C-alpha cells in the first residue's frame, strides 16, 4: 500500500504566540514563523501544525474563536498567512491548522445574536448554542440546570439574564459550546472549513473532537464528564464532516480524544473510517499523577512515574491500529508540562534524560509530533508569582486548591509542575535579551535558564539535544522507521523501557532506564550483530545482562 504524506511525515507543533516575534510587540506571529521555516527545514521536519490563529479575545489563547475568517491582529494579516503557506510549500513542508468545532468565543457574532433577544438575527443564531432554563429550589432561588463541572473547573453553566437562560460551556465561560443538532450551524462550519482549505491548508488538527454531542436529558452528575464527552452520536457528526469536506479533498486530519477503546479508535481513525486519519489520545500523558492526593488532586499532584503505564499505553495503541489504522506518537503538546521536566530530570541528569526520552519515543513506529522547544530540551516555567502565569485554567485551579485547604506555596508548586503554561513559554533561540524571541517584553515571561538552554548554543555542540533530534529525524526518513513493527521486551518492568522496532531494512533495539538511579536489566533475546548507534553516556557492547546508569539509554541496530 502506497504511503500517504502524513504517514511518512515528522510533524512540528508550533504554538505561534510563543515561537518568534517579528515586529517587536512581544507576541509571536506569522511573519516570525515564516522567517523561521528554514530552521524547521534544518531540523528535518516536513509538516508544521500551527495553533489557532483566528480572531479571538484570547481568553484561551485562540481556542476561543470570535471570527474564523479573520486573522488575529496579534499574529498578522491574511496575506501573512498566505505567504507562510506559500513558502512552507516551496520548502516541501505541509501546513496543518487547528480547527475548533466544539465552541466559539462569547464575542463571536453568532453568540452576540444568540444571547440578545432584541438582536435582529436572534432567532437565527439562538439555537447555534445550547441553552437551558433555570431550575428553582423550594425558596424560589434560581439554580443551574445541572451540577456538571467544567474541564477548567467551576460549573458548565453561565446565566444570561436577557433570555432568562443558562448557556453550556464545558471549558471557559467565554467559550460557549455549539449545538451540533442545528443543521445551519453545521453548514456554516463546513463553509468555514472549505474556505480554509482554499488557502492551501494540507490538514487539520480537530480540537476537542469528542465533545460535540451532549446528553440532552441533562441529568445531575458531578463532575458529569460522561454526559458531554465521547457520546456515540459525535461519531456521526465527525463522519459527516469527513465525508463532506475532508476526504473528497484529500485533507489530512488528526482528531483529539482521550480514553478511546479499540472500537472507538477504529471509528475515529481506522483505514475504513471516514472521520480522521490519526488520533491524539493522551493515554501516556499523566503517568505520574497522584490521583489519591486530596489537596491538589489528579494530574496536579506529581507522583512517581508509572513506566509500565506508559509502555502499555503505546503498546495498546500500536496493537489496536496495526494493519487497520495509523498511529501518532508524541510526548506532549501545548496542554501538558514540558516532557523533560515531566518524565525526565531537568537538573542533575538534564542531558541524559533528555536523550533518553528522545530515543524511547522516536524509534517507535507511527507519525511523530515534536512540540516546539522539545528538541532543545526546554523545561518547565520557574515562576514565583501567580500573576506570572497566563493560562485561564491556572487561576481557576488556584482557587480550587485554596478551597481544598492548600497553602499558597503548595498551590504554586502544583502550577509550576503541571500547568499548561509550562509548554507555552517563549522559544529559547539564543542567549540575548528575552531569549531572542522578541526585542520587547514577551507576552509571558521567558524561563530564567535560557542563557544555558537555547538553540544557538546547541547548534554548535555535536552532543546537544538539538543535534540528537536532527540526527534521529534524518534516520527516521531514510530507514522508514514510521512503518516498522514494534515489540516491547519485559513490558511489565517498572523501571526500564525496552523494545525492538523491525523495519524492512533493519531492526532497532532501544534499551532505556527511566529512573534516576542504577538498574539491572536481563535481555532474553538474540544479541548477535547488533551495533550501538546512539547512547547518552558512552558506546557499549550489547550484552544479555546490563547495568544501566541513571537515565541511561542505548539504541542498537541490526542490519538484515
Helix content: 25-40%
CATH architecture of the domain at 484-559: Sandwich
The CATH topology annotation of the domain at 484-559 reads as Immunoglobulin-like
Shape: globular
Structural class estimated from helices and strands: alpha/beta
Radius of gyration: 24 Å
DSSP E strands, number: 24
Q: Give the neighbour order of strands across the main sheet.
A: 13-12-11-5-2-1-17-16
Fourth CATH level, the homologous superfamily of the domain at 484-559: Golgi alpha-mannosidase II
Describe this structure in words.
The chain has 560 residues and is of the alpha/beta class. Among the domains are: 109-168, Oligo-1,6-glucosidase, Domain 2 (Oligo-1,6-glucosidase, domain 2, Alpha-Beta Complex), CATH 3.90.400.10; 484-559, Golgi alpha-mannosidase II (Immunoglobulin-like, Sandwich). 27% of the residues lie in helices and 18% in strands. The strands form 7 sheets. The chain has an 8-stranded parallel β-sheet, covered by helices on one side. Strands 18-19-20-24-22 form a 5-stranded antiparallel β-sheet, covered by helices on one side. Strands 6-10-9 form a 3-stranded antiparallel β-sheet, with no helix packed on it. The two termini are 22 Å apart. The mean pLDDT is 96.
